[in-house]
Design brief:
disordered C terminus, 439 residues, disordered N terminus
Length: 439
């Protein structure tokens, strides 16, 4: 069964692999289009016009279908979560559709052998055959990162031409065929090597990214643990940010950045003195002013890094307490002056804080918290984002169960309350700290 699955994956690249060739697909299709025009132009006078037109029409149809598939893939990646794309549209749909398109392109180029049969001009033969094999070599750049795609493009393109050369009675043509086959063999080796290298590099990059994301998550938890909040809060809040970004049509890339950047929204609380951060009771105006500096502390901790996720995390830490009406802090930004990621985090953070049980407060009901979010649209929160948020309330609420299960699976059991000194203690412990829920 495992061997069968591996074979299937080798033949039909998964959606998560196809990005390797989709990045260069536009350039590839443009090259095929210009090459087809050139071939048709040099074939005028060498082959019947109807044959040239039919070949050109077939090439145009294939390129059109491939272009539509490219647009469909890009739109899906922009508006849907990759997992939704794979489960709703079949795990192999994107890889298979691109493979079919590539195979048809190779078949169409291979059909150019019919044009050769109508001409006795050696120069025309040399130009067309050379063009075919140059195209096979250049395809290493655009398709070589997935060997199965390269193979199924080149074989139907090259074999008909090679057979035509071998069947020709002229020894020079036979020699050209052998030289061409040797050339293609080496391009196959190059494509296979490139595909293996890209896969290895991709796997290593994924390991590095996973490590970076884990470090970022734990850095975010460092700030939460000093404020009597649980790891589950940042899990739920960050996944809520991801869902809201997807619902707002901001694309998978942006949503994933939100997932990994938003846990660090309160990392600046590391720099707030214990007698303020852990004060039992309401903060004075002076203490509240000190508490509010955590956003700038967080910005300073995260700022100045070239990593895009760190840059987003810095903006989130700095602006997630700004308000739509301009009454927030630290700068009093209003409306769209507030970075989009800060506006998203503000909604998700407040909703989860309101519906969470804390040692110093009871959890609000979902209905009460939803009513609050709705009432604050246009005052505290971006009204457009609030609309999207309300559409996904069932999914947001469901995170409470899924994140709890993930925590149990990690073996934390009922260790959900954080001691003021930073130690995790059982959830039924009487030791706790207090702070304002939306400080």
């Amino acid at each position: 069964m495992m061997q069968k699955m591996q074979c299937r994956v080798w033949l039909f690249p998964l959606g998560r692999q196809v990005y390797r060739v989709y990045d260069s697909a536009t350039l590839e299709l443009l090259g095929h289009f210009l090459g087809a025009i050139l071939l048709c132009a040099i074939s005028v006078g060498q082959a019947p016009l109807i044959t040239i037109v039919m070949w050109g029409a077939a090439q145009g149809l294939v390129l059109g279908l491939r272009f539509m598939g490219l647009q469909s893939y890009r739109e899906a990646q922009q508006h849907l979560h990759l997992r939704q794309v794979e489960t709703q549209l079949c795990p192999y749909r994107w890889g298979f559709s691109y493979l079919v398109g590539v195979f048809l392109s190779g078949l169409t180029w291979g059909a150019s052998v019919f044009l050769l049969n109508f001409s006795d001009e050696p120069a025309y033969h040399a130009v067309l055959v050379s063009g075919i094999f140059v195209l096979a070599g250049s395809a290493v750049v655009t398709l070589g990162s997935i060997f199965s795609l390269y193979l199924l493009f080149v074989l139907p393109m090259v074999l008909p031409v090679a057979v035509w050369l071998l069947l020709n009675s002229d020894p020079l043509y036979n020699a050209m065929a052998l030289a061409a086959l040797i050339y293609v063999f080496y391009t196959f080796m190059a494509a296979h090597s490139l595909s293996s290298s890209v896969q290895t590099l991709h796997d290593k990059n994924q390991e590095i990214l996973a490590t970076q994301r884990e470090i970022l998550l734990r850095l975010g938890r460092a700030g939460e643990y000093r404020d009597s909040e649980t790891g589950e809060h940042i899990q739920r809040m960050s996944k809520s940010c991801q869902l809201l970004a997807l619902q707002a049509g901001l694309g998978q890339t942006f949503a994933d950045k939100m997932l990994y950047a938003s846990p660090m929204h309160d990392v600046g609380k590391i720099g707030i003195a214990d007698h303020i951060l852990l004060k039992p009771g309401k903060l004075s105006e002076a203490e509240r002013a000190v508490m509010q500096t955590h956003v700038l502390i967080g910005k300073n901790i995260l700022d100045g890094h070239s990593c895009e996720i760190m840059q987003m995390a810095s903006r989130i830490a700095e602006t997630h307490h700004e308000r739509w009406d301009g009454t927030g802090y630290p700068y009093g930004l209003a409306g769209t002056e507030i970075p989009l990621e800060g506006r998203i985090t503000a909604i998700c953070d407040v909703f989860d804080a309101l519906t969470s049980q804390r040692p110093y407060k009871s959890a609000w009901s979902d209905a009460r918290a939803v009513a609050f979010i709705r009432e604050e649209a246009g005052r505290h929160f971006d009204p457009v984002l609030v609309g999207y948020f309300l559409e996904i309330i069932p999914a947001i609420v469901a995170l409470r169960e899924t994140c709890s299960q993930e925590r149990d699976n990690l073996g934390y059991g009922n260790l959900t309350t954080v001691h003021p000194g930073g130690l995790i203690v059982p959830s039924d412990s009487k030791i706790f700290s207090t702070a304002d829920v939306c400080a």
